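Q: What does the assembly look like in three dimensions?
Context provided by user:
Components: four
Sequences:
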Amino acid sequence: MSTPPTRTPRSGRRTAVASIERGAESRDERKARTRRALLDTALDALRDESFTSLSLREVAKGAGIVPTAFYRHFPDMDSLGIALVDESIGSLHELLRDARANAESDAHLIRGSLRILVDHVDAHERHFRFLARERFGGSAILRKAIGLEVRMFATELAVDLARVPEIGAWPSRDIQLLADLIVTLIVATIEDLVEADDADAVAAAVEAAATQMRMVLLGVGAWHPVTPRR
Amino acid sequence: MSTPPTRTPRSGRRTAVASIERGAESRDERKARTRRALLDTALDALRDESFTSLSLREVAKGAGIVPTAFYRHFPDMDSLGIALVDESIGSLHELLRDARANAESDAHLIRGSLRILVDHVDAHERHFRFLARERFGGSAILRKAIGLEVRMFATELAVDLARVPEIGAWPSRDIQLLADLIVTLIVATIEDLVEADDADAVAAAVEAAATQMRMVLLGVGAWHPVTPRR
DNA sequence: AAGTTCAGTGAACATATGTGCACTACAGTG
DNA sequence: CACTGTAGTGCACATATGTTCACTGAACTT
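A: Here is the predicted structure of the complete assembly.
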């Protein structure tokens, strides 16, 4: 009821984003809040430009702080980029986790997985777009960071694949390559999805991915357990 | 032997790139030369940054002309970008042409094609890197232009595939999707190749691509001519 | 020989950028 | 309560950017 001990209902000074009608907030909460605002601004701006052309002043302004205050959160723009990679990769792993859970129940494995993919891309569109855009983008640091994570993602998938009876007996090198192939297809589909501007385009991308995935999996059935070494 | 009618062995004014020890040159030749210098500078700069962060002044300086002279060649940076896309796509079609010629003679279709791919990427590294980097880059104009061309490339491949006995009878939609799948794999390989920094990395990328291509083509053998509609 | 065309110049502009510095206000703490 | 740590401010600077304008000189056209 009564106003909490810490008053200042509306401070005389507009204090960045936090000022948007928040009465009491701890110091850490406010810091986290502007940090989020910086990341969000960057994520939004990266819809129309690439990371190397994104300026410190631009994100600072978008977050409602003065340029120099940026340094209270990140030593430089590259660090901001790395933070975005971390967040985005989180979405990726979450995706795989859901797909794994689904694979054990759903009879239509491909369609079910694709549905999950679409849902995730939809829910974290900015992050996935960021990944697609910067995977081979101009920043060497981000390229390296994303490349590493995508490779880890593929390895994670390879472990899952090894549990499939038909595949389990393959040489691990082949399993990894199959996982890489599937990841390539998934990434390509993600790129199509973030680029899709209407529902039809999404549906088309899904249809294409489903058919192509089926083609690949048919290849799996015919694959010789022993790699034809030369 | 004797100096040609048009003299001016070394003009009193250093005229941009053309001044690098070229005695006689027609006006058009000189213009073409600086245009080339602009494109080359851009191509080189795009190794370390993305197109949206590439500045007009930067390419002008690299080409040895004053910023304002840039407008004598392109109305804006986007036009320069489109010109780069055109050039790069040229390399792509050249690649397919060579691969086609090879396919009719070489018994090892996959390895032969990959060898050609590697050679082309090596010969036109800057162009292929540009394509990979801007395919999903920050510039909407370039994204659209490249996307269109890649789709045309896939369609061209589909026509070739339709001539393969096992595939010819498929519904055209499936042939197109197979072509798209193969193009996805090719593009992914190109991305790996331009990212590869030593010979080992190149060899690994080729090995991976060869195996994956074999997996896909095995799927082709098992594919039912009629698309399993739902 | 005189005239035209046009790639390239150089100065100027308004605006954007990264970063250093001294500061202020307020949440957290003894 | 006074004290301190720190997110955010405001100013300043050197530098980079796109674009305008009037210009120059040499290749071409007549």
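Follow-up: The two ends of chain A are 79 Å apart (CA to CA).
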